[in-house]
Write a structure and sequence with these properties.
Strand order of the largest sheet: 2-1-5-4-3
CATH class of the largest domain: Alpha Beta
Number of domains: 3
Largest sheet: 5 strands, antiparallel
CATH superfamily of the largest domain: P-loop containing nucleotide triphosphate hydrolases
Strand content: 15-25%
Length: 448
C-alpha cells in the first residue's frame, strides 16, 4: 500500500472516529470494511474483531433475518431513516438502536456497498420515561395546562373527605382520576369500589348499592352486602350518576345527607363511612335546569368539581400518551416496540378522537396486535385513523398545498407546537409560519 493511500485511509478513519453515532461500512458481500469508535462503544465489539466479518455477525439484530436495512438499501438504492431495531451486544445485552443506511458508490457510480449509522436509544428511552414520570399523576399522563392545573390540586382534594364530582366526556379518564384521589388519601389502604350506575336498571341498582336481607324479594335467599358496605372506610365511585332515576336520586340524597342507609328488607340503618366520588359524561347543570336531575342532589355532590377536557382539546398530549401506552403494552404483551412512525403520529394528531383517551389506547392496542416489527406503522392502526374526518388529511399527498400543510404539522408536532422552534426547523420567518398556519387552517392546541 503506497503512502498516499495509507494517509487517505488514516484520514478516513479519523473522520469516522469523530462521529458520535456508530458508523460502519460493508461491501456487496455484507463484509464489514470499516468500524468507528462509537460503533465499538455501542456494540462492545472492537474494530479489529468487526472488520472482515459479516455485518449480521457483528450487529446480531433480529432485523438481520427479517428486514435488514442495509441489505434492502443495497438492493433497492433506497435509504432507511431512523428505523428502530434491537441488537445484541458482545456482552449479550439486548439494546435498542436507531438505524440510518445509504449506499456507497465508486467514482464511476457503481454500487460497492453500504453505510449504516446507528444511535443507542437506551439513554433516550430513559429520558423519555423520566419525562413521562414528570408529566404524570398516577396513570394519568399530560402536559396540557388544564390537566396540569388539575394535577396540582389533586393532592389537596385527596387529603379532604369532601364529595367530588368529576365531569367529562366518555373516555377522558374519570375513573383514573377517582382512583388517583383515593390512592393519595388517608383511606388508600381501604377498598376502592366503582359502580357504573348507567349499566344497572332501576330494579337492580338499589340492591347493588345498599344490599339486601334474605327474604327481601323472591330470589333473595341470603343476605348480600351492597357496594356502600363493601367500600367500608374507603372510597365509592358512582360512575354515570346522571343516568339514575328520580327515585334512586332521592334515596341517594338521603344517604349523602344522613350518612346512613338501610339494605332492602332491613329495619335497621347502617352507617356509611365511605367517601363518595361521582362521575358523569352528562351536563348535570343543564339537567337540573330541565328538571331531569334533582337540584339538591346536584349541590350535595358538587362540593369539589373537576372537569376533564376532551382529547381533541389537548392534542399536544398525543405523543406523550402514545409513548405511555407503548410502555404499557410492551409490559403486557412482552413485545419490544420502540416507537411510532412519523406518518402514523401525524394521523393520530389529526384524528378527531370522539372516544377520547380510551379510543387512543384501543388504537395503540390494535396496532400492537398487527405489528410485525419494532415500529408502529400507520397500516397497523384502525381504518378510521387512516382516513380521519379531517378532510385536509390525505396519506397520499398529491398537491403542493397538501404537502406543505403536512410538513408544517409534522414540524409543529416535532417541536411540541412551539412556533419559534418550528419556524427555525422549517427555515422560515415566524410571521411567515403564522400566515401559513392561518392559510391552512391548522388548529394549534392550547398552550399554558
Amino acid at each position: 500500500m503506497n503512502p498516499s493511500t495509507l494517509a487517505n485511509l488514516t484520514d478516513y478513519q479519523s473522520i469516522l472516529n469523530s462521529i458520535t453515532d456508530g458508523v460502519f461500512t460493508i461491501n456487496n458481500d455484507m463484509i464489514v470494511t470499516s468500524f468507528n469508535l462509537a460503533a465499538e462503544r455501542i456494540t462492545q465489539v472492537t474494530r479489529a474483531e468487526a472488520i472482515g466479518r459479516k455485518c449480521f455477525e457483528v450487529m446480531r439484530s433480529e432485523a438481520c433475518e427479517s428486514g435488514c436495512c442495509i441489505k434492502k438499501t443495497i438492493e433497492t438504492g433506497q435509504p432507511c431513516e431512523n428505523v428502530p431495531v434491537f441488537i445484541v451486544r458482545a456482552d449479550n445485552k439486548r439494546i435498542p438502536i436507531s438505524v440510518n443506511t445509504n449506499i456507497l458508490r465508486d467514482e464511476s457510480g457503481n454500487i460497492i456497498g453500504g453505510v449504516e449509522t446507528f444511535r443507542d436509544l437506551t439513554e433516550i428511552n430513559n429520558l423519555r420515561r423520566a419525562y413521562l414520570k414528570k408529566h404524570a399523576f398516577e396513570d394519568i399522563v399530560s402536559k396540557n395546562h388544564k390537566m396540569l392545573r388539575l394535577f396540582a390540586i389533586l393532592p389537596q382534594i385527596a387529603k379532604s373527605h369532601s364529595t367530588v364530582l368529576i365531569e367529562g366526556p366518555s373516555g377522558t379518564g374519570k375513573e383514573l382520576f377517582a382512583r388517583a384521589i383515593h390512592n393519595h388519601s388517608a383511606q388508600h389502604k381501604s377498598p376502592f369500589v366503582a359502580v357504573n350506575c348507567g349499566a344497572l336498571p332501576d330494579t337492580l341498582i338499589e340492591s347493588e348499592l345498599f344490599g339486601y336481607q334474605a327474604g327481601a324479594f323472591t330470589d333473595a335467599k341470603q343476605n348480600k352486602a351492597g357496594r356502600f358496605a363493601l367500600a367500608g372506610d374507603g372510597t365509592i365511585l358512582l360512575d354515570e350518576i346522571g343516568d339514575i332515576s328520580p327515585a334512586v336520586q332521592m334515596r341517594l340524597l338521603r344517604v349523602l345527607e344522613n350518612r346512613t342507609y338501610s339494605p332492602l328488607g332491613a329495619t335497621d340503618t347502617r352507617r356509611m363511612n365511605a367517601r363518595v366520588i361521582a362521575a358523569t359524561h352528562r351536563d348535570l347543570k343543564k339537567m337540573v335546569a330541565e328538571k331531569q336531575f334533582r337540584e339538591d342532589l346536584y349541590f350535595r355532590i358538587n362540593i369539589v368539581s373537576l372537569r376533564l377536557p376532551k382529547l381533541a382539546e389537548r392534542k399536544e398530549d398525543i405523543p406523550l400518551l402514545v409513548n405511555h401506552f407503548i410502555e404499557h403494552f410492551n409490559t403486557i404483551t412482552g413485545k419490544q416496540i420502540l416507537g411510532i412512525s412519523q406518518d402514523a403520529l401525524t394521523a393520530l394528531v389529526l384524528h378527531d378522537w370522539p372516544g377520547n383517551v380510551r379510543e387512543l389506547e384501543n388504537a395503540i392496542e390494535h396496532a400492537f396486535v398487527l405489528s410485525r416489527d419494532n415500529l408502529l406503522h400507520l397500516e397497523y392502526f384502525p381504518e378510521q385513523i387512516h382516513s380521519p374526518r379531517n378532510p385536509a388529511y390525505s396519506p397520499t399527498e398529491t398537491t403542493l398545498k397538501q404537502i406543505e400543510k403536512q410538513a408544517i404539522i409534522r414540524a409543529l408536532i416535532n417541536n411540541a407546537w412551539r412556533r419559534m422552534a418550528t419556524a427555525r426547523e422549517l427555515g422560515i420567518d415566524k410571521n411567515t409560519l403564522r400566515r401559513k398556519i392561518q392559510r391552512h387552517d391548522i388548529k394549534i392546541p392550547d398552550q399554558p
